[in-house]
Amino acid sequence: MSIPTFDQLHVVSDLHLGGGKGFQIFNQKDALSWFVRNTAEDSPDKRIGILLNGDVVDFLAEEPFKYLDPKGAIKKLERILVDDSFAEVWKAFMYFIQKENRFLIIQLGNHDVELALPQVQNFLRKRLCKNNQDSRGRLIFSTNGNGYLCKVGGADVLCLHGNEKDAWNPVDFNNLSDIIKAMNRLQEIPDWAPNAGTKMVIDVMNKIKKKYKWIDLLKPETKTVPALLLALDNNILSKLRKVSGVLATFAKDYLRKKTGFLSAEDADKTEMDEKLKFEKMLFDSYDTSKASLNDKIGLEDLLKQIDTDISKGIDPLDLTDSSLDEEFLGVFGALWDKIFKRSPKKNTRDALQKWLAEDSTFDLKRRDNNFSEIDKMVGEDLHFVIAGHTHLQRAIKRSKGFYYNSGTWIRLMQITKEMLDDDGQFDKLWKVLEKGTMEAIDKPAIIGLNDFMVVKQVNTVVSINDQKDEVLGCLQTVEKNGNGAFELKNVPESIFICTV
Questions:
Q1: For 210-298, where are the alpha helices, taking DSSP H only?
Q2: Which residues contact 45 (CB under 8 A, 6 or more apart)?
Q3: Angle (deg, nearest 10), helices 87-97 and 29-41
Q4: Helix 331-339 and helix 264-285: axis angle, to 10°?
Q5: Measured between alpha carbons, how far is 406 from 398 in angstroms, rounded to an integer?
Q6: How confident is the model over 9-51, as pLDDT tens digits?
């Protein structure tokens, strides 16, 4: 089998180009444009590829918010291409693909599923390549879910977005294929069955982001986000009522991956079973006899009753079961903290101290679940496996080859142990979180915090280079030097050498 071969391959992921003002989480247009143009000019005689490893575009951040928008995708993409926050990046991609021996590969993620649609690909190809037929041949779309396999020198390199084994964010490629067929045949477009992660973004998180702009930046999101939201905002409870439907979708997707595709009847039954299971867990943890509830009410009524009990001053400690601490994204633990009616500030601090104890989210060598699942699903003889999706850098030795995670180019929030343990530091953190704006996150000085920073910006590139007798892989970061110019810096502990 003949596969593409490069002298150099540079992988970036999770750019999340999209969203109007207030919904934009990418802010590195100058750094990324420099990297792309610099790579375009480097070693003209070498075959060099830049692979955008998923979630390049963030259609889920574009209004009108939809799980998948086949009819409106081109209009949304057209807006993203000219947005001041992203336009220079697209111009850099255009410059890159016009150069000989330069290849731009776009891999599908879970926020940019619309890029799999042929009409969208044709639109983007026309915009980036103009009428240059050679450039059109060097713009490659990898959107079928199989990953992108190539060689750098003699080394086999497999690039995956990384959502393949994430039960929250699988892409249903059978459903997607049906939609593409219908569009090509000018037939009625079938409904899209969104995964639980997409439902969470559209049904819950986008509404919350209107007030708390920083919510997408927080790591680890599975534990800290629910605690912060429920502590900060009394109205969040009503927004989180949609979580039951999200969790039912998650359970259905999980079972489908475990047992194969379910029939429509089985899928509907699974969804109902999981919704009932969710409600039972909530009822079991909230003693309905003490709350004077009957067993006929539904989830919505129960949540309203919780609100009513709190307003009456009923002691929630008598009504709850703490065994649900970290079930389902930590929502229950945070919910009960809310019911306990402690001060939001104390609630937040206690919850985060518990959930972030000995946290190793940002550890470069941490063998997180994403690594473990991908490591099991690919062959051990692959020299390099590169994923994204988690937004977290990784450089890990496999049994034979090597694994990288290409991180992200959005800024992240890292809440440290020092911020939680020190009263003064936590006061500053609380002030930033309460403010809720990106401006307060990026420049705490505007709210009087001149010596405090919660943002972690790591512009990550995975670089694989053929060096004749060996192939060298490493993580690199794009940073400004002392003179204010951009440069690439190797992450020393990420350098792996493959002899082939």
A1: 221-232, 236-239, 243-259, 264-285
A2: 101
A3: 10
A4: 30
A5: 16
A6: 999 999 999 999 878 999 999 999 999 999 999 999 999 999 9
Which burial class, exposed, middle or buried, applies to 219 when counting CB atoms under 10 A from its CB (0-12, 13-18, 19+)?
Answer: buried
pLDDT tens digits, 326-338? 333 334 444 444 4
Reading the block at residue 219, the tokens are 């790591």
Do 110 and 195 touch, CB atoms closer than 8 A? yes
Write the single-letter amino acid at 382. Answer: L
The residues, any chain, with a CB within 8 Å of residue 16's CB and separated by 6 or more, are 25, 26, 55, 57, 58, 61, 111, 216, 408, 410
- The set of residues, in sequence order, having a beta carbon less than 8 Å from that of 311 and lying 6+ positions away, is none
Contact 115, 56 (CB under 8 A): yes
Contact 324, 214 (CB under 8 A): no
| Cα-based distances in Å from 194 to 3, 279, 329 | 33, 22, 19
The model's pTM is 0.82
In the chain, what are the domains? Answer: 5-183+363-413+456-498 (3.60.21.10)
Q: Give CA–CA dist 443/447, Å, rounded.
A: 8
